[in-house]
Amino acid sequence: MKQISQIIFALFILQSSFAEAATIADIINRFEGEYTGVVPGSEVGRPEDGSLIMHSFVGRVDLPAFGNDVIYLEQRYGGPEGSITRQRIMAFSQDDQGIVTRAYDFLEGAKYVRADAVPARVASLSPDAMYNFPEGCRIRWTEDGDGFVGEVNRQGCEIVSRSGRGNVFVDMVYRLTGDSYSLFEQGFDASDRFLFGTNAPHRHQHLPKRDLDEELEQILSAFEGGFENLPHDPAVTAHSNIIGNLYTHVRRVNLPAFGTHVQYIEFTRGGPDGAVVRQRLNVFDSNPNRRANVMVSYEFQDGSAYAGAYADPAKLNGLKPQDLEPLVTGCELIWSTVRGVLTGVSDRTICHRFNERLQVWRHVSFVFLLDGESMHLWEHSYSPEGNLIFGSPLPIRFPRVRSGWLGNERKASQ
Prior knowledge:
Layout: H1 2-31, E1 33-40, E2 51-60, E3 69-77, E4 83-95, E5 98-105, E6 131-132, E7 139-144, E8 147-152, E9 158-160, E10 167-176, E11 180-188, E12 194-197, E13 202-206, H2 212-223, E14 225-228, E15 246-253, E16 262-269, E17 275-284, E18 293-299, E19 325-326, E20 333-338, E21 341-346, E22 352-355, E23 360-370, E24 374-382, E25 388-391, E26 396-399, H3 405-413
Antiparallel strand pairs: 1-2, 1-13, 2-3, 3-4, 4-5, 5-6, 5-7, 7-8, 8-10, 9-10, 10-11, 11-12, 11-13, 14-15, 15-16, 16-17, 17-18, 18-19, 18-20, 20-21, 21-23, 22-23, 23-24, 24-25, 24-26
């Protein structure tokens, strides 16, 4: 009898753990995604801006130091490339009162932007490297119709303001449904005087999930071929030491050690057979659970043996990631479609590269724009002090060359 009781108790614990995991998973599944909403500028300290678009990214991240169920949240004013207004790590767990979330704030958030798309950017984080909100500020969740409500009550949530406001007492309500989330937040001082917050909940509409496989094929196809930049214009290419009479070849290559979606890109100066000035492998993540198309680039330390690999891909046979130099974490390009143009962006706030020749750190921004007819490249390099080292005021346009290698190869196959 005792054994049966123990088995029943064990089954009860097992079923409870499944229920707990499923409930937390349901909250996170509803929360994950990309959102857009409108907030009054007057409510967020920007009255001169009128109404502001707020764009939010929410994604699960693997951070065992915070627990088993963790998400990264990022909010921006002005759209997906706007200024960041909030970044949080939110760790879900279960206690004797139900599901609860502990939130953590970043001390240097610029290092970790878009960790929803590139979780590796936060992989080294631990709670002691972040601002920990007090115990009374944990978000307590309950079911509400077809969604969930997470609440913080100012009777229990007291925060020492980091902006010099003294002690702040916070009310907060998250509401998650199938197609949106809303946030209502207000702060008060010890005399119950209103300090900041919203007059009503701000609703953020869940954007439709993008077909990332279809988008990736569009990127690969738009990238592939031969491109030649417009004639050198000193007014456009001031401060640049690489732009001017550049020819670009891009070709998909079969290198299983790097993954299933790999391209070789080669820049030559002075024409298609000119001197090679840059060679890279562009590798795209094809994980079905990815939240954006992310491109990681590898550089050739000595690429002379691989020059012309766009015409003879066999030159690359046997290459492995350890044979090349990956661009550092933070220099990945995150892709999206902006007004019909495929756009890949890496920001200088986190893309920091050491120049061996000059023995200096460079803060680099890359932007690729692909419209099917042209490749546009916008690249800047800055010193750590913020001084421009090189770059162009506008993206440099490389029109597709119909007589390039891709055109010739297609003609030959017809």
